[in-house]
Amino acid sequence: MNIAVIYGGRSGEHEISLISAAAITRGIKKENQVILIGITKDGRWYLQDEAEYKRICSDEKAALTIKEDSAKAVSIIPGAKKNAFVCGGKALDIDVVFPALHGTYGEDGTIQGLFEMADIAYVGCTHLSSAITMDKEKTKMIWQSVGLPVVPYVCVKRSVVLDSVVYDAVIEETEKELGYPMFVKPCCAGSSNGASKANNRRELSFAIMEAFNWDDKVLVEKAINAREIECSVTGNSVTFPADSDVEDVVAYIPGEIAPSHTFYDFDAKYNDPDGAKLLIPAELSENDLEKIRKTACAAYKVLDATGLSRVDFFIDRDTKAVYLNEINTMPGFTPISMFPKMCDAAGLKFSDLVELLISEAVARYEAKNKLSTSR
């Protein structure tokens, strides 16, 4: 099978993608042909040399790089299926794409829509569920609509800050509704980019302005004294046929993050090796672990998620209440990432996880191709 791993991208998580994609590439079984396509920070696509594949396979700690060569620029032909990706006038012959891309232009439905137009199999959620889950406000609204618990929040749109009277009124209402401290984050960004904690009005205004550097909508949430719990989920929530082990929706062993930082920010996630303790399984009773798994599956299914996601929770230390925080449709695959670690704790080894995700992508593509598109 010819598998294209696409990485990099126009995202604040570009560097994380280089690490995740390297791990994924090493996890692909050697009987497959791997094609590496790097996307630069300004959005240009380049086919990488075979030497790059050999380099990262020979070094478990190596991250991928992107070599820019105009002769290796990649273009896409809509509807061309396996021959959709073209480099130097020649089709690359790709069976399935593994987009190891995080955040904007990778996890938000844009590239998934491109794959749909190309008519090629790809790993992960569809364009619709990717777009919805990238927007934290819309995700919470859908979860609330079916009775799933979320932390109280207020969404502030950029238009609000253009009118000082309206802005002041929104701030006052937010303070009244949520109270300090609060967490502020962009609605459509990942890896805690642009996120910060506010303990008073001055800090809240600074936090909102910082978040607006990343998105046109900002989510302000009530800060709770919380434990951070995560749960890996795989499968096809739209069909999940009873006779298919590949597409069955499965929630794995939940884990807990105990950050040493003020909160689990970008630095704690990726730069500081002591930024957090990762506890798998989470220190919860078996009943509570099962509750997390069931809620994760429910949160995954209502969003029509497919392929994989990491569902994040808060447990209030004071009231013991469980809240859904957010869902990541292309979670990190770095050596310290929780998603593969939780799967591994349940007995699904890294290479088997990668193979499962690829097999699920092919199965979903084949099933979709049986649907009618015209009379």
Label this structure with key terms.
6-stranded antiparallel β-sheet; 5-stranded mixed β-sheet; 12 helices; 375 residues; globular; alpha+beta; 18 strands
Total helical elements: 12
User: Helical residue percent?
Assistant: 25-40%
**How would you characterize the largest beta sheet?**
6 strands, antiparallel
Instruction: State the shape.
Output: globular
Number of E strands: 18
- Let me know the average pLDDT: 92
What class would the helix/strand composition place it in? alpha+beta
What is the string of SSEs from the N terminus onward? EHEEHEEEEHEHHEHHEEHEEEEHEHEEHH
Termini gap: 32 Å
Radius of gyration of CA atoms, rounded to a whole number: 21 Å
Quote the beta fraction. 15-25%
Uncertain stretches: none
